[in-house]
Amino acid sequence: MSFFSPPPPLALAPPPVGLLRRSFLKFTGLGVAGVALAAAGCRISKDEETNSVEVGKHDLAVLNYAYALEQLEGAYYEKVVAGFYAGATAMEKDLLTDIRNDEIAHREWFREVLVLKKVPRLEFDFSSINFTDRRSVLTTARTFEDLGVSAYNGAGQLLTLSPFLNHAGKIVSVEARHAATIRNLLAFGSFADSDVVDANGLDVVRTPPQVMALADKYFVTKVKVDELPTH
């Protein structure tokens, strides 16, 4: 079993889809919060002319923003694992596969919670990355993981429904584990360098506009964060 792998599940028949969703929301403590989110008065819209999407307002906007970033990470690691770079060791393959699985789990969590008011499946442009080269792949992974941690650090305070904030805190802690792992693969002992952890022992915080300015080049479908709350 690899470092990040959960224990294998019991071989049980899957429950009906409706029951699965209710159990999922109950398990994550989001039953009432999910209902509130589904009842939100705003809608998610896509502008075909500019190939961009709005993320909504309030908690809906924050969750859709995070969902867009998780889609980016999930798509990236799916491509990495589909054809590992030259010379990838068995340990590196295991770690990157586990990270892929985590990112997909995060992505699907947002997809389930957002119900019908979510941004669509997005398209990404990874043409600037050489997927056959170890340094290119891991440097990009470090960028995405560091960016993801700073994004959650900046957006968590914008959530008003405590169940969502609690779950976001659990996700960002996993993203930080990913970041530390990737950093150590690139340069052992660099997991808490001063570029990500300051003198007070605190990690980087970025606002949604700051995050999207850095991530925008990878998004074919642009994500507008203008209507996200600022405090």
- CATH homologous superfamily label of the domain at 55-117 and 127-220: Ferritin, core subunit, four-helix bundle
Kindly estimate the percentage of residues that lie in beta strands according to DSSP.
under 5%
* Percent helix range: 40-55%
Tally of DSSP helical segments: 7
Overall shape: it is: globular
Q: Which structural class matches the secondary elements?
A: mainly alpha
Largest sheet: 3 strands, mixed
Find the count of extended strands (DSSP E, 2+ residues). Answer: 3
- Uncertain regions spanning at least 5 consecutive residues: 1-27
What pattern of helices and strands is seen along the backbone?
HHEEHHHHHE
| Text of the CATH class of the domain at 55-117 and 127-220 | Mainly Alpha
Strand order of the largest sheet: 1-2-3
CATH architecture of the domain at 55-117 and 127-220: Up-down Bundle
> Gap between N and C termini, in Å?
42 Å
What is the average of the pLDDT values? Answer: 83
At the third CATH level, what is the topology name of the domain at 55-117 and 127-220? Ferritin
**What is the radius of gyration computed over CA atoms, rounded to a whole number of angstroms?**
18 Å
Give your account of this protein's structure.
This protein has 231 residues and is mainly alpha-helical. It has a domain at 55-117 and 127-220: Ferritin (Up-down Bundle). The chain contains seven helices and three strands, in the order ααββαααααβ. The protein has helices at 17-27, 31-38, 58-82, 90-113, 134-155, 162-186, 208-215; strands spanning 46-47, 52-54, 222-224. A three-stranded mixed sheet has the order 1-2-3, with helices on one face. Strand 1 (46-47) and strand 2 (52-54) form a beta hairpin. Helix 5 runs antiparallel to helix 7 (208-215). The longest helix is centred in the first third of the chain and has 25 residues, at 58-82. The protein is globular.
